[in-house]
Structure formats: C-alpha cells, structure tokens
NB-ARC domain, LRR domain containing protein (Parasponia andersonii), 888 residues
Amino acid sequence: MAEVVVSVVTSKILNLLAEEAKYLIGVQGLVENAIHELEDLRLFLKEADERAGGDDERARNCVGRIREAAYDLEDVIVTFARKAAPKRKRGIMNAMKRLAFIFDEGFALHQIGSEIQRISNEISGLKQNLQEIGIRRSTDVTAGTYPNGSQTRQLRRAFSHTVDPDFVGFQADTKKLLKYLTEEEKPHRVVSICGMGGLGKTTLAREIYHHQHIRSHFSRFAWASISQQCNVRDVWEGLLFKLSSFTMDEKIEIKNSSDDEVAKKLYQVQRDQKCLVILDDIWNIQTWDSLKHAFPSETTASKLLLTTRYTEVARSADRDGIQHQPQCLDEKQGWELFKKKAGFEREIMSKSGNEKWKEELGGQMLKHCHGLPLAIIVLGGLLSTKQTAYEWERVRDNVEQYISKGEIHGNGDSFLGVSWVLGLSFNDLPYHLKPCFLHLSHFAEDFEIRVKELCQIWIAEGFISSNKQDRSSIEEKAYQCFVELVQRCMVQDAKRGWTGRISTCRVHDLMRDLSLEKAQEQNFLQVINFRNSGTSTHLMQICKVRRLAIHLNNNAPLLSLIQNAEYASLRSILCFNPLWTPCGQVFGQLINNFHMLRVLKFENAGNLELPIEIKQFVHLRFLSLNGSCVKQLPSSIGNLECLETLDVRTTDSSNISFKIPSEIGKLRQLRHLYLPHRSVLRRNKLRLSNVSSLRTLVNFPMRHLDFNELAHLTNLTKLQMFDDRSSRELVVPASIKFNQLESLGIVVENSASVAVDVEPILKSCSQVYKLQLALKIQKLPGLDHFLKSLIKLVLVRTFLQEDPMSTLGNLQALKVLGLFKFAFLGSEMVCSEGGFPALESLSLVEQYHLEEWRVMPTALPKLRRLKIEGCNRLRNVPQRLQDVRFAY
C-alpha cells in the first residue's frame, strides 16, 4: 500500500508542478529531485508491501514511515503553494501583499527548501533501510493502466428490476420457498432464509422477489435492506411508499406524522392488500423488535420474507414460521458459476490456448471455496482479468500460499472459505485500483452509493491520473476503474440506467469488512460512527489523519470533533447526516481548521450560510452541500480555482430564489455544477466562456440563458434548464451544435405559460439519448426533427392536444417512456402496429382525460414494466398487456 500512496502523491505533485509552477519558483528543482527519489523508491515497494503484510515487523515499520514521508512532502509543497498563490496575483488589491511577500519570500523559500531537502534525505534513508533488510529493486516498472474497450469485456446488460443473470444453483431452495410463501392450506406468516455470510441469501431472496409465480400471487411488493445501524423510521417509510401510491402532499404529510402513525399505516396496508415484504440482512433480535410493530402478528394474505445470519432472529420474528437454510453449491453448480465469472465463454479465452490446463488450475483453486457462492464469484472475478495460463498458475500459487499460512481472519463461520479469496482479490489489484477500493470503506453498510459522485470524488482525491492532453476523458477513466472493481466482483451494481451504465452500487458486507480492515491497516482513513455509540477506527500513533468519514446522528458532538488538532492535515471529509441536522455553525469551523481539504461532502446539513472565508479552500476539488438549505453563494467562491464539482441542490421548498454569483465564471476547472431549482444571477450575465471544461450543468435558470454563451461549453454532456415563471422562446442559432450532449432537461413550473417551440434546441443536440420536457409545448416536433437516438423520454405538463403515440412509436431506440401530469389532454390513445419496437418501460401517470387506450397486436413487443396511476377515467388496460409486470 506504500506503493499506492507514493504513486498517488507523486502524481499529485507532478500535477501541481504543471498547474501551479508559477507558485513554486525557487523550489522547483528541489521538488523535482524529491519526485525522482519517490519514483526510485517505488521500485522497492511491491516487495516491501508484500513483506509488510506478513510477519516482517521491520518492513511494516519502514513502509509506514514511507507513507508518512510521502504525505509530508505533499503537505509541505501544497502549503507553500497555497500561501504563495494570493501574493503572486495581479491587481491593485494585491500590490501590498506582493510587496510584503518580496521581503519575506527569501526566508520562506529557505524554509520550504530545507524542509523538502529534509524529507528527500529521509526518503533516501528509508530506501537504504529497505535494501539492508533484503528488499530489492523491482525490474517491473509498469505503472497501473486503465482498462479500455478492448481490454475489458462488455458488462452484462442487467437492470435493477431483473434478477441476477448468473443465478446458479438454489433450484431446490427456490422451489421450497415458493411453496412456503404461496401455499394457502398451511399459511406461514414469516419465512426466513438463514445462513453464513457469502452463502447467497440476498441473491436467493432477489430471485424469489422477481419470480413470475410470486408476481402473479401477490399484488404489492416492497424490499428493504437492513444494516447493523438500522433506522426504523426510514425503513417503515420506505416500505409504505413502495406498497401504496401517494401524492406528493400525502408523502409530506406522512413524513411529518409520528412513528406510531406510520407504523399503523404500514400495518394496515398489509392487512388490506396481498403484500410481499422482504427485509434483507437483519443482524439481531433487537433490530427485529424495533421493526415488528408495523407488521401483522396474525395470519393475513401478506407475507414477510427475512434474510439473516442468525436463526435466533428468525425464531424471534415468528416461532412458528419457516427457517430455511440454503445449502452450499455442489461441485457441478460451483463449477458452472465459476466458469461464468472467470470468463470461460469469452472469445479471448478460446484463443489463448491451454484451456484444459486452465480448467485444471481452476478446479484446484475452486476446492478451497467450499461451495460458498461469494468466494466462487470473487475468485472468478479475479481470474477474469488473467489472460494466460501462466497468470492463472501465479494465482494458484498465491492461493496455496494463503491457505498454508492460515491467513483467515474474521469471526466465526462467515469467513470460512471466503477470507482467503477476499484478501487475495485485494492483493491482486493493480496499484491504481487499491485506493479506489479502500475509499469504499467511507460508506456505511448497505449504503447505496451514487457512482457518478463516487467517480468525481476519486478524481478530486487524485486517484485517477490524467494529463492536460487527455483531461476530457478523466470521468470515463474513473468509471472504467469502477467497472473493473465490478468485474472483479468486489463491488455489486445496484441500479443501472437504460443504456446499461451503472448508476448506483453497494458493497457486500464481507467485502466492506475487508475494505475497512485494509484501510485501517494502511492508515488510509478514520471512520467515526455516532450511529453506533461513537465507535471509531484507530490509526497508528505516528500517522496523521488524512481522510475522515463521519456518520452522524442528531446528538453527535460534531463541533467539538472538528476542533481536534489531530485533524489539521485532513484532505477529505465525507459527512453522512440524517436530514436537517443543525450543522450551520460547524461549517465555519471547517473553513478555519482545514485549509488543505480537497474533498468536502457535507450534505443534508440544515440551514447553511456560507461565509466569505470559504475562499480559504483554495485546494478544494469537490464540494457537495446537496440537501442542505443554502440561500446563496458568496462571491469569494470564485477564489476556489481548483474546484471541479460544486453541488448546492437544496431541499428547501420555499419560493426564495438561490442567488448565483457571477464569480462562478472564474472557476476555470469546474466540470460539474448542480444548482437548486430556483436560481437567479446576482448580475444578469454569467460568462460561461471561462468554464469551458463544464460537462454537467443542472438547474441553470432559463431567464439568464444565452445560447451564444452556452455554445462555449463544447464538452457539455448533461444540461438541465429550469424556470419558475413564464417561459420564452428558445432561440438557438442554427450554427450552434452541442455534439457531446447526451442528456437534456427543460423544466418550466408555471403551467399557464405560453406554448414553446422546442424544435430548434432539439436540432442543436442530435446525440441526446435522455430527454425530459416539462413545459407547455402542445405539439410534438415532427418525426424528421425528433431525436432518433432517444432511449429515455419523459413528458410532464406538455399539454399535448394530439395523440403522441403515433409519433413516438416510430422511435426505434426508445426504451423508456413516461407521460406524467397533463402530458396529454386527449381522451384516446393508440399504439399502432409495429409501434415502440424497443420500449421496455411505460408510465402513464395523472393523465386525467384519458378514457380509452388501444394497443395493436404487434405494438410494444418488448414491454415488461407498466405503471398506471391517477388515470381515473381510463376504462381498462388493453388485454394483451395484462401479463406485463405492474409497477407501483
């Protein structure tokens, strides 16, 4: 792991030299010499890391000191650049600062030079120490590389509403569970799936949840993932919203009601309807005791399916219920699953030769998995990255070494047959992926992680290397790194968009345990969990805290925590808040104490007023205040010259407009900007030409829109425009083209506004595959002007007079269509012969005038998800769609 730290720090300093060389005049030679020492040292670190991970105490101490020396070098250089930056700027206001700096610059340069030289000497001495204990320079100087289209296999097309396409085994288990849940003569109120971690309980439950027999037997469905830090109210609300349809006003009313009222509503819907509720991964009896009041204790048509590691939890839920324990996979099933995950079906495998020898090697390793699906999946994922028999032999030798050493950590049977392969999968990661994997330990158990945000944070941390010539593709590089972790089965995809791209993910709890264990070993971060009695991971005493993950409850002493002097060197804070935690005064302390921050995620923090001192965050790359109530940004935000991602989307439902300073136009590195719905510029002009790197622009106020300015954003891939009052014509000059734009949204809240012609803007962005129109248009553009590349289309308050299906049915690529709230004002809708050849999901919501819907025999051939809600006049659903799965 020292190799990871040294590589990341070296990359950061090289970037600093490229981007801020003017601030390092006078010490540049020393910095370059230090980089040379680090790069030479890295050749020793592969073996050093391996020995430090074993029983070699001297290697472990040496590696720890190397990590800290690399971090210290970064601290010194970054601190000097931060202090020098404002004093070297031009302008009258900085004149006095520059004069003062001239007098003390010589002394400052002497100090910084001495400190850099001291650290360089320390690094050189540590390199000598490594040689003295027998660690040799590696001849393999290959750096970590990023997978590309030819190196990585195509991700399987699987979506959040389907089962695992690699579901193997459990046929007998599935048959039994279907019987337990649907039999009428001997009904069971609660059915539990019990067994050790990695056995496949969740996979089996998901198979049951989506099974056709279950879908035809029950009418309502809900799933909740329960973690060790279970929030009962969140679970109850989530289940209630899935089992019943509520308007937005009704949802707000429920959120404002008492726990007892929410429990009663959830209880009642299970009594009145035929529901299947799945509670996945309940850890203890106390968790069940806190949840049980919302579930019927008597026999009803509804059923509850639990997964848990512990049979006593299952017995507590219902002493007379069924406790089913799946068996491990037999040899044949294990081999079938292994072949799928290891990529035996790939063309490259058939061309690589030695297939029989690989099969023999696979069998030798597979026996150590003891039939546990998780162990087989992870081993297969690891081997899927190996192309030759020689590489498979090396993995086999490592497996034998792990087993012979008895390197099985953890508690109880959960780790039997699993731990060795999890550890091996981590050690096999190329160095550029290791910090990405360790970073996942920031997130709580069962937390659903937004992949786009995760990649943005990895970039801000410096985990993803880049150069100015290839900067435009850095998000794709980060996503490719994430995809490789998925392919190695170290991360689970939770949801995918309709293009197949993963939008959210989770980490299996055993894999998360590994990530947390390795992060603690490597002093990668500290985690403080106030939701679990203030527990904290501990770092070695010689180490400074560089990253901090804080999981808050409403009583957490956050203010006193961030005043702790040991956090002075923090680079990253990820703060996970429950809604509306009173954190306003805390933000000021963050600014005062942590000038070195690159990443700050401080969401759902209640009312926040950002002070002018935010300008001190000059190294900040990622700032998210999503869900907090921020009224305005100070003009000093323009000082954050390194800022790449700014997210100030708010949950504030008032009509107060968010004030955008024109100084945002100074943020030349900005790539992703998320604004609240109601935003206005303090001045009428925002020079977008200065932020030409922008790729994401969400909720930009249409009243300030100038397409000639917008045309400078040639890298824009996502654009959402918003207006809360009468819209105007979207005048787009014919010469303007947004060739990179993939997602476009236009939202106007005022339904009384005049109809708008959207044809000009659609002509300017021919590559868009995701389109949302929430404004009065009355008539769709003609088919010749409609986007042929559309995969997803959402229409809201468009007030269409003519049936849209005649036009939309001809869109050959369209997979998702949603008509919401007055999208169509007509009474009759017809899906013509051959219409919608690719459509898989259709939503008709609050189409109050719709009375008749006809579907021709060859229309909608691939439809598998249908949502109809608030269409009170609709007489019936077409007969041929009766078997399509309804969504609620």
